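Can anyone check this?
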Amino acid sequence: MNPIRVGLFVVAAAGLAGGLLAPLVGLGAVQSWIWGVPAGAVLAVLLYEIVTSLLEGEVGLDLVAGISISAALAFGETLAAGVVALMYAGGQLLEDYAANRARADMKALLARAPKTALRYSDGRIVEVAIDAIRPGDRLLLRQGDIVPVDGRVSNGRALLDMAALTGESVPVKCLEGQDVQSGARSLDTAFDMVATRPASESTYAGIVRLVQAAQAAKAPMVRLADRYALVFLFFTVALAGGTWYLTGDHIRMLAVLVSATPCPLILAVPVAIIAGMGKAARRGVLMKGGPVLETMARATTLVIDKTGTLTKGRAELAGIIPEGPWEPDEMLRIAASLEQASAHVTASSIVAAAQGRGMTLSYPTEVRETAGEGLEGIVDGRRVIAGGHDFVAGKLKLFDAVRPEHEPGTALAALAIDGQLAGCFLLADGIRPETPIALERLRQAGITRIVLASGDSQAVVDRVGDGLGLDLLRGGLKPEEKVAIVKAEHQSAITLMVGDGVNDAPALAVADVGISMGATGSAAATESADVVLLVDDLTRLAEGLSAARRARAIAVQSVLAGLGMSFAAMLAAAFGYITVVEGALLQEAIDVAVILNALRALR
């Protein structure tokens, strides 16, 4: 906490306590001074802060407390001045606590950012600043280290804690050749990795930029609250002045002033907004600022890309079509054995399918690859050809070979064994298993219209959208046509756009809120977006949306309830039902209630 604010609280508390004890130790004659001097010290600091705010172009809304203490001292009500000073100093500490508690999750993300890394250089391990790391550098990660840049495991295996990034408590295991994300913490033995991006372009650097932008941005609701707080200030001064004018009782006027608290406006709103952002960040939904949260909270339409969002974004084995005596499993084992020698995405999909079924693969020999078309080699003594249907048919001189029928959006890969066509593999970009649940939860979170907008053909889009209950399916779109769809939807409702590719960046930029699938999304999409999902899972978006709606609702609730209680307390004081000390205590009780209510957004 701020040491100055802690010091003020100690001074005010000591002064109030000392004044109460003064008669017991024979110092009753100076009791008024014991209360008044600490109150004056608090007032001096308070006036300095008010003037500083005014010079920066902001009206210091602690002006109410300043007027209260000044008036109490002027009228010789030093006990009242001491109580108000203590309540003000205590309120400042409460404000610090609430703000720090609300920002804790986002501060934790910034605190984890590594400054240095261990790099192999000329046979030695040298500690270097992460800004000096370049793609291709080999780094050593020890147990407990934070992964400094995006990279790939080059030696050993990594067990990574991703909880700070994604909210997942289960560690992630990465084997040699697999990607690792910057910002994760190593939990196991040391491993080597090769950097694939410089620090400035890595995942965690983007997260840090998002958090910094979020802390700097001032939400529209907060700005609105600032304006209403000025109205509150004028109302307070007018009511206090009117009470004094009509009753001639300066004590009642003081009671009105000390009962007034603008806390529901100047603190409850930002605390609730920041708390909502912090809760979303814990679940891997990072927002660029309070304005984004407020807009998300009011959105009812979602435009969504297909590849990498509703679907997995990579081809998977969807079926095997044998020709002749070959069993499908044996076809897969032989094809995967040969495809081990290729880095092509189709080859990787076939190998992954075989490994997923627990198959033991053979080592291929005499492998020759035709880039982008296919490869041939020897597997278990058999001559094997695998690749695109035209490539394999051409190698077998089957120029009239008929392609098997397959659904739109699926691709064919053929296999030949010992000069005979053995069959084909069907590959497709499958729907994510969580997609139906995610869409249902988005509906529950307040999204009433979902539009699928994709660059893939209309037939593919229809196949993917079938059964998902979407409101509009649009395929074959160019980037500018996606932009047009987002603009059209914006005409009737606040619109969210979710995408992960370079071609989605323009649409993300024009949406009310652009949302990027950050783990696999392109750098262009991430930079254009207002929200980044650190986990490629749309259910997290539903969680973020719910957190945004709840935070905004709590902010509104805190303002209405808090101001209602403040106005009631001031009117009671004006009619003489509340004393000065009671008004100060009631004001602090309202502050505590409002702030605790705003912090509910963290739960």
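Reply from J.R.: I decoded it. The mean pLDDT is 83.
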